[in-house]
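seq/struct pair 1
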Amino acid sequence: MSTETRDISPQQLSEWLDAGGVTLIDVRGADEHYARRIEGATLKPLGGLTPGDLPAEGRVVIHCRSGVRGCEAVSRMARSGRGEVYNLVGGIKAWEREGHDVTIDRRVAMPIMRQVQMIAGGTVLASVILGVTVSPWTLAVAGFMGGGLLFAGASGFCGMATVLNKMPWNRAPKRGADQSVATA
């Protein structure tokens, strides 16, 4: 079995999808996938992607937001010996930029990591302002947030993201034909 892997353009993917016989895998997070996706893509987040998730034969195209995670996934699959695995250059951003349709669900909240960044940044900013104007003890909150972010970066586990994933606004909405719109 060949371990050949390649990058393909959005135009080439569009032609393959029109012709059929290609499996499209989205390696982004569930929140990203449900908010904006290429119709027909199967969600398999990068962290849990294994060669067994891919069909044994045929072309497989992997995509992410910008092409970085897709490239990592393609490289991982190539090392496993799986042939005919391709990365969509530029990811869904390039797909959309070139005028291809995406399905958008406007009811999906912003990505979890953006929520984490906003909460952590806002908390640090507020604690520093309070530390300067009210009490230096409030700077401990900024230290706690910094420690949490350091731990998340080192371990790959973000407690805040775990909690945010359980919030009602971050749960995958029920699918329905009238709940999403396709755009070019």
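seq/struct pair 2
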Amino acid sequence: MLSKKIEKALNEQINAELFSAYLYMSMSACFLDKNLEGFGNWMYIQALEEFAHAKKFYSFVIERGGRVKFTKIDEPRNEWENAEKVFEDAYAHEQYITERINNLVDMAMDEKDHATGVMLQWFVSEQVEEEANASAVLEKIRLAGSKGSGLFMIDRELSQRNFDAAEYE
């Protein structure tokens, strides 16, 4: 059974994950509007991952006898100057989510909620990957520049990203 404090925090994280999906869909739309299909694909896959993260929290709250409560999702930003700015925001957002996950881990430890602590370890590892992926693309953009053939080479590379729902079961 979840404590009310943990239940509330996990519900807030569900909302944060859904906002993340919403943000990445907005980033995808921005790229697709500029005919950068690979970048759009990368962000679309990122949005699917964030939705899967929300679902993982959702399932855990229910499994532990808690009640999932959805709240309003804020409107995400819709326009960016260039690909570098988009990925700067994506990387900063992943750092923010990492901080939230770390705070949840601390709370689970304080509450001696071992089951939640174990579940959150998956997210700790996932956030290392999330930050590394966003940072790697950002660094490639910085090396290649936000315009020209280098950007199109990165776009082609990013079009290869796929989503495997089984990774989130």
